[in-house]
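seq/struct pair 1
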Amino acid sequence: MGHYVLILAGGSGTRLNQKIAKQFLELADMPVLMHSIRAFYDLDTKIKIYVGLSSRLKTTWRDLCSKYNFNIPHKLYQGGSTRNETVFNGLKKIKKESVRSQD
């Protein structure tokens, strides 16, 4: 069995009072979310990375990946309306894909 990671990035960052969601704010020349993904990938290049995003943020994320030429393998999945829902959705996604890969 491989290693999996869920990165919960579905929040809007309203508490920061910013126009950009906090996971997309730039830190050291790239968005914070890219740093998180890179940290896990650097730990284990075979790790399966799943990023939970709301549907309204997926296009923004894809645009940022293109802009920053970010190509570390990861899969997006639908975040929930709460943190717990986002975790649950990610676990369901991992289970579904791991069962599919065993067929």
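seq/struct pair 2
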Amino acid sequence: MKQLFLIRHAKSDWENAELTDIERHLNARGYSNANAMSLKFKTKPDLIITSPAIRAISTALIFAKNLNYNANTILIKQELYDSTINDYLGVIKNIDDKFNTVLLFAHNPTISDVAQLLTQELPAEMPTCAIAGITFNTSHWKSIVTGKLTLFDYPKK
């Protein structure tokens, strides 16, 4: 069995117009929500993967800290930034099979689209810092098609 938790980055800061999109960091609410959601989350990951955007990396680091996950082993994947559903699926299907529980931090609208595609039952678009947990009845990431939505949580729920 494989478990994938798709996590949309927490709320980002739009105050500094000089920053490029990839450089935007979390705002105060984003830090607070990421901390609260990660403390509520009880599943220990085998692997954390994130987009290279600062807001996604920051969200992943907060989860890593609160889940006692070694932040030095977080994988940063360019394919998760400004990309397509197929790019995300490529990252997911190429996860080493030794990892069973994976947290993947990325961006809307693609992360919501991927969650909908993989579950066929996502109830809504993923708000910031939302978590969609999906379980696949397989032992190989390459063979995932549709899984069961086992968690859909977000800060305002």
